[in-house]
Amino acid sequence: MSTRTSEHTAPAGRSARPEAGDATRTVPPATAGTAVVKTGRWRRLRGVLLVGIIVVAAAVVPVLLTPSGEAGGHYLDPADTSLAGARALADVLADHGVAVERVDSVSAALARAGSDSLLLVTEAGEVTATGARRLAASPADRLIVGRAAHLDILASGVTPKKRGTRTRSRDPECGLREATRAGSAYLGGISFTGPAGSIGCYPAAGNPTLVRYVLDGRTITVVGDGDFMTNLRLSEDGNAALAINLAGAKRRLVWLVPPGAADPGTDGSGSDDPTEARSLGGLVPDGVNWAVFQLVVAVALVAVWRGRRLGPVVVERLPVIVRASETVEGRGRLYRARRARDRAALALRAAAADRITPRLGLPATAAPDEVAAAVAVRAGEDLQQVWAALYGPAPTDDAGLVALAEHLDRLERQVRDS
User: Fold this and answer.
1) What are the TM regions of this chain, as residue ranges (predicted)?
2) What is the pLDDT along the chain (418 residues), one digit of tens a residue?
3) Nearest-5° angle of CA 87, CA 118, CA 67?
């Protein structure tokens, strides 16, 4: 006993007191345990951190890639209350007695635009060349804001000088009454060169970002950027005053929005009646679809992450080998302890039938009468006794169960040997 103890304790002693030559290669037990714990903890957390980073990136990247003019709603829409919309300007104009009429087609704009109205066209409005020519022929004054399409038709004589001009607070530096009364405003975007006789304001690098001139009795105003009219910027500097002075020059303002843009104050079907039935899809906010997509991606990533943790199937050796005979004996003892002679008899008969039926050339679905008749013919025994042995009632005592087992064994030997 003492010899065994010394053999097992000697390695521990050597590891606990390493020799001088092994000091550089041996890690103290406490330090090694701490390193293992830290490594295991990092392995458990790195998957969670990876999924979190992916989810955050999926939420932040689309916001960063979305143009500022389109984030959160319809850009420069007089019915939109988001930061990119212009609902605040429309309300202020209405308080000043200006009738703001929101239209989403060139035909509707021409039907409402007259000599007593101002036609507002923004870069959000999708105007074709033909539509631009029709708008240019209208008797209404025109206010073109931002990177509107077909500027050469809507405001002939005005030429973009530089695009991408920084948008910031600028002073008017001109004699236009609407601009001088407003003062500094948040302008930029595009700088222009105007026709002869035009007035240029809010210059950037020597070129105006706001141009006004008169053509055939109609006042035409071109502004390089429309952010000063949005809900986000309207309260800054003199943006509100400039927007009111420009857009409120007439009693009626015909505001052209993109075709098919639903009024945020309605159900999206073009009806202003709030009691009208709305579809289920119309009640779902626009951001829900993107949120659902993010959740699906997150769940898929978590499923992949957790699935990899399962790893391949590993075959392990059983700690104890149990012989088949011991299993049978143990099951028999359980039957005997519970006096389950019916279950024991059923197990014996089913096993005997499974072994006898193939030898008789019968299918597994053969009826009991067919199996009993074939066994009686092959074994040369009485049909009633064979049927009682294979499908009869359960024995009432242990002796009857032993007799049944012997009878079944004899029938099986007779069928096998015949």
Assistant:
1) 47-65
2) 444 444 444 444 444 444 444 444 444 444 444 544 456 566 667 767 777 787 777 666 665 555 444 444 588 999 999 999 999 999 999 999 999 999 989 999 999 988 899 999 988 777 888 999 999 999 999 999 988 888 999 999 999 998 888 999 999 999 999 999 999 999 999 999 999 999 999 999 899 999 999 998 999 999 999 999 999 999 999 999 999 999 999 999 999 988 766 555 544 444 444 334 445 665 666 677 778 888 888 888 888 777 666 667 778 787 777 788 888 888 888 888 888 889 989 989 999 999 999 998 899 888 999 999 999 998 888 999 989 989 999 998 989 989 999 999 999 999 888 7
3) 45
| Pair of tokens at residue 230 | 């949005």
Tokens read off for 168: 């910031």
Would you say the C-alpha torsion 152, 154, 156, 161 has a positive or negative sign?
negative
The type of residue at 42 is W
109, amino acid identity: A
